[in-house]
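Task 17 of the worksheet. Students: predict the tertiary structure of the chain below and write it out as structure tokens. Keep your answer in the requested format; marks are given for formatting as well as content.
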Amino acid sequence: MSIPVLICDDSSVARKLLTRALPSDWDIDVSYAVNGSEALDQLAAGNGDILFLDLNMPVMDGYETLEAILNDNLQTTVLVVSGDIQPEAYTRVMGLGAVAFIKKPISEEDLTEILEELDLYDPASNSGTNSDNEMIGGRSDQEIAAAGPIQYRDCIQEIANVAMGQSADLLARLLNVFIKLPVPNVNLLEVCDLKMALSHVAKDDTYSAVCQGFIGAGIAGEALLIFSDSSYADMAKLLKYKGELNDNAELELIMDIASILVGACTGGIADQLDLNFSQGHPVVLGQHVDIGELVANNESRWKETLAIEIIYEIENYNITCDLLLLFTEDSIDNLNRRLSYLMD
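Model answer:
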């Protein structure tokens, strides 16, 4: 009898890649969910003896899903598959009952080894379950199709998700903190849209911003880090900064943060696209200004642009920063070609 396996991830790309990595001769029946709420319904219906669970999802994230599984005493074996690789993320999910923490992206070989170690899969007892189907990667074309249609935006979001996790991990290890991560927001924007997209950060605070260019293999853009002025005091404490917290000191702090997040995030994207980005020198775009003024003062820099937005929020501290990766319009075709392997 086939084992019911549930893959829960808001990204159709991630669902597809994980399905392809499952052993081709594993006798399983695969179902899908796009958030934790859907996963709980599937589990209650008996569709998930084994659950592959993402962490960063809308509606109900992976942590909330694990808590609900415990509270409702749902019988399932949970393997977390996430781009959020912070040490605290691992500690939390294992404490909530997960049996494995798998870093995205994962290869078929690595996943098979993990499943064997957990005694969830034994190649000796399986014999070409999918031999009657046309194969794509590890599983059948029917299973791949059931993972959902792949859109260009989904591809961008998934590589951004992995890069976001890498940059957060670096900052979390440096500061010994846990960083709450969102689902990356991907949009094709013009300047007026950019101002609207940033309206959520423009409440009762002013901001400082640093911009750093990157270019490689016909893909270019700028990384814009927007840092809340109200975050400086807590950040200075975390970085053990000594001395007066004046404009120069605040600039030094935001430059330090930018070098970590921008370098790790763009580097993570470059690795997944199999290219290298050259980094320009960071440029201060403004200190202690509101969002409208920041965009208005620099609107000549950005016309139509592909924007990836990631909000980093440090738990238990008043520290929030907004990272936007703004790709030039001329880069989009080259980016499409680099992403074609995810669309296949």
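Marker's comment: The chain has 13 helices and 15 strands. Confidence is low (pLDDT under 50) at residues 128-137.
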